[in-house]
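Contributing new records

If you add data, match the layout below exactly. Sequence lines come first and carry their own label; structure lines follow with theirs. Keep one chain per record. Anything else will be rejected by the validation script.
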Amino acid sequence: MKEIVAKRVSTLELFYDLIFVYAISKITGMIHHPVAGGLPPLAYVEFMFVVVMVMQLWLYQVLYINRFGRSRVIDTAGLLINMYAMAYLANNINTEWSLTFHSFNSAVLLLVAVLLGQYLCGSGKAPLRDRDVRAFTITLSLELLAVLVGLLSGYRYGIYWCVFGGMLGFLMPLAIYHQFIPANVNFPHLLERLGLIIIISFGEALVNVTRYFTGALFRPLPLLIFVLLAAMFGSYVIQTEKLINHHQRSRGFVLMYSHVFMVLAILSMTVGLDYLADHAVSRLFVWVLITASSAGYYLCLLVNDVYRRQRSRDGFWDYCLLGALVIVGSAISFALRSVNVGLVLGFSLTSIAIFANLFVKAAVVKKKR
């Protein structure tokens, strides 16, 4: 099979990502304010929905550029208009949806309309003959219709239509999975773009934990927090750069959906670490939040094992080892949760152990080549 030539990530795409740095910081702020020692379930559900909404809009733009983008006027104009709309969307991310319902969903409507226009006008002379374009067009049209109905209905009933539209845009590709053609995907470009959104998410995490980096240079808590995040990111780098086969024909669905939940896990971890500074927040709640975030993150890494070369894929005992490391680290943190250093220690040890395990695997794979 002919090796895929990676499509270069353009400067404009990187410029486009800048607004998502701001959007992600606004999303994280949704759950920065604990109530009664914890986080209300509804607030977290709203947080999850906004992550999904923002990520699916970003992904549709990425997938258009990945398949059809050639730095034409329609590509450039679409990116710039969507940056403008995303700035409005980001500024209206909050937990008081009745106040920003119209502005937020008007921005969503513009984003979806522009994406739909790009797929119809920028994918060739007979776009609807292409199975990929038909699938994207149907999905985006239904999402556009649902959001439009929601806006016209007003907040009381329209909020449900808008949520339905967002979830339709996120989940419908799974229902029409076989409509998408693997050969149309430039896998290395997709992998690089998804890697950039993970870098943005970890950047948000580092910015939020800088509050602990005061006083003596080598205090235990900031050192452990930094090691935790660095090892988590290091594990991602080894998995994506050293173990995943970049030159393969794949629709990339597992890769894309796992990255949405990986972003969700990283942002949840960020908030959990931020809660360490608030002694009014239950230590048990902080432990649960960080444990769930850590386990979710590594599970997302694990499922991307399907993109490795056959000889480098994990087996049953590798999965058992990963699970054991997460359980042991969480148990240590649970036992020492009354002290912030102890609570972070277990998770840091887990992240170091998983990073070391992946590092060794990457070295073995490299030696076999």
